[in-house]
Amino acid sequence: MISTYKRLLLKALGWSQAYIYRYPRPSVTATILLVGPDQQVLWGLRQPTADAYPNTLCLVGGFLNAKTIEADMLAPTAEDPGETIEETAIRETFEETGIVLKPEQLILIGSKSHPNTDPRAHVVNLCYAAILTRAQMNSAKAGDDLQALVWKPLQDGTFQEPFEAAFNHMEIALEGLAKLAQYQHRTCYYCAKSQGVCGDFCKDSASCAPGPIIP
Predict the structure, then answer these.
(1) Containing structural domain, residue 83
(2) Where are the beta strands (DSSP E) in the chain?
(3) d(CA 146, CA 53)
(4) Of 44, 49, 148, 165, which sits most exposed with the smallest number of CB within 10 A?
(5) What is the CA radius of gyration of the chain?
């Protein structure tokens, strides 16, 4: 229920009806493990001015744009239609790396929701992996809140050298790599998903990317 004071305040601001959820709500994020065709994982170096883990490597990702209406705020604001968590993953990947993912490339790794993972807020995080084509790999360029991109090579399903990662991103990366390793591999992940017919990702053999077959 909305308090009488808040209802009167909202009415004075021109909102005749409003609902305020009485319990705290977490933020929602997407984190994406991007794996290149040469068995490398793409990491981003956070800006020195970042409010959490500055100058630290992280996986690509960010916060979901939630649906809002004017009555959600105590000051007039533009309404936001919101987005799905898959759209968040695709948008954040493009904003931070310039890579355009297709929805079919997203492979759900799992979810994380420990209340202390992010020092800024309690976050519910949906974790994805995506296997890149060589063209996508070559198009990568740092953007948004990343100052640089770094490719870390893999050996036997893990990283060749240890390094520090922001938040719980090393845990997510290792879990994602282990999950990808469970699947049988073919010459081309995208051909396999389309039952052997090359799609938009794979016009010729040079653009094929090895990857898991999703059951």
Answers:
(1) 25-183
(2) 27-35, 40-46, 57-58, 60-63, 107-112, 123-131, 146-155, 158-159, 185-186, 211-212
(3) 12
(4) 49
(5) 20
Assigned domain for 108 exists: yes
Where is pLDDT greater, at 20 or 57? Answer: 57
pLDDT at position 157 is 80
pTM for the whole structure: 0.76
Residue 112 has pLDDT above 90, yes or no: yes
Mean pLDDT throughout 26-51? 93
Decide which of 9 and 192 is more confident. Answer: 9
Query: Does some domain include residue 127?
Result: yes
Q: Quote the number of domains for the chain.
A: 1
Can you tell me the distance from the alpha carbon of 7 to that of 4, in angstroms, rounded to the nearest whole number?
5
Q: 10 Å Cβ neighbour count for 112?
A: 20
Domain assignment present for residue 42? The answer is yes
